[in-house]
Amino acid sequence: MRVTPPVRFTPAKASGGTAPDGPHPSETGMPIEVHYTEDHIGLVFCAVGKITGQDIIDAQKKIYASAHFVRLKYWIVDRARCTEYAVTADDVARIASMDNEAAKRNPHMLVALVSQTDLQFGISRMYEAHIDENGFKAMSFRSRAAAERWIRHELRKARHD
């Protein structure tokens, strides 16, 4: 089994300030910022300002269409800068359905959901309930540091399996 490089939680440096597949979402005024890690095995999905379920769905469609998606080992959803989280139960079901379909292309991806509010945490737990058993491995956290520790632990464990 190929050993992956150490996990770095800093955005990738790409020419012209772009993500691997085009302009950085924050440069286009979108409420979702997507940062690929330097080693391109991780993605940090930052919610900024008011977020709707459709904002998440639109951003995920772009990520899933990316050639980089199949190489991802983990995805952090960070809502620390989210001021309003307007995501419904129907949105959660649609997002989880998309993720279950995407998991067929990248079945072992880790998804860490970082929640700043009780509402976000509850919605994250609802999302976990919708994820197929053979899909992404998702966990909810109250802090980014705890999410990063879990990812590091799971990646080390996967290297030894």
Summarize the structure.
The chain has 161 residues and is α/β, with parallel strands linked by helices. It has one domain: 2-Layer Sandwich (Transcription Regulator spoIIAA).
Strand and helix layout:
Layout (H helix, E strand, L loop, with lengths): L17 E2 L2 E2 L8 E5 L5 E11 H13 L8 E13 L2 H14 L7 E5 L3 H13 L6 E5 L2 H17 L1
Parallel strand pairs: 4-5, 5-6, 6-7
Antiparallel strand pairs: 1-2, 3-4
Helix pairs in contact: 1-2, 2-3
Sketch the topology as an H/E string, one letter per element.
EEEEHEHEHEH
Distance between the termini: 9 Å
Mean pLDDT: 84
Tell me the count of domains. 1
CATH homology superfamily name: STAS domain
Write up what this structure looks like:
Helix 1 packs parallel to helix 2 and helix 2 (89-102) crosses helix 3. The protein has a five-stranded mixed β-sheet, sandwiched between helices. A two-stranded antiparallel sheet has the order 1-2. The longest helix has 17 residues, at 144-160. The termini are close together. It contains four helices and seven strands; from the N terminus they run ββββαβαβαβα. It has helices at residues 53-65, 89-102, 118-130, 144-160; strands spanning 18-19, 22-23, 32-36, 42-52, 74-86, 110-114, 137-141. The protein has a single domain (23-160), classed as STAS domain (Transcription Regulator spoIIAA, 2-Layer Sandwich). With 161 residues, the chain is of the alpha/beta class.
